[in-house]
Amino acid sequence: MKGFPDARPERWLGALALIVISLISLGNVITRYLTGGSFSFTEEFSVFLLVVLTFAGASVALRRDRHIRIGFLERALPERWRGALILFQALCGLIVLGLITWYGGKLAWQEYQWESLSPGLGLPQWWYLVWLPILSAAMLWRLVQQTRDRLKGELTSDA
């Protein structure tokens, strides 16, 4: 494997979210300074984009094997047990991310059916929520890729 494993769609999405958050915040600061008022939509969009940025960044971190984990036990175990520990870690992650994907999708679908509107701007709430199951499913995929690479010995715990 050359360089770091890539998660290009998530990197682009995270970068785009960060750029838009920065532009919205800058525009709001300038407007507040010049007029004493602020844009009403900035908080709702900024919070939404921050969640997207967090999930996209977590997906990239999973693919690059940069999530925090205690590697002491992994390094201390004999080689034959290391694979079992890696699989156990992956299973725990798959369960958590699977639950987030399932219940996030269920929540987004219910909000779509109920035609719920966001409190600030009155936009359909599911527009914001649909990204939760999509990005947690991306994290699931990146976890599978990371686990495969760790089992092959292409990614090792260096911390």
Automatic annotation (TrEMBL):
Molecular function terms, GO-annotated: transmembrane transporter activity
Principal location listed in the UniProt entry: membrane
Keywords for this protein: Cell inner membrane, Cell membrane, Membrane, Transmembrane, Transmembrane helix, Transport
One GO CC term on file: plasma membrane
An individual GO BP term: C4-dicarboxylate transport
Database matches in Pfam families: DctQ
Membrane protein topology class: Multi-pass membrane protein
Domain Tripartite ATP-independent periplasmic transporters DctQ component per the UniProt entry, residue ranges: 22-152
Subcellular location: Cell inner membrane
Subunit architecture: The complex comprises the extracytoplasmic solute receptor protein and the two transmembrane proteins.
Its job: Part of the tripartite ATP-independent periplasmic (TRAP) transport system.
Family, as annotated: Belongs to the TRAP transporter small permease family.
Protein name per Swiss-Prot or TrEMBL: TRAP transporter small permease protein
Organism, scientific name: Vreelandella aquamarina
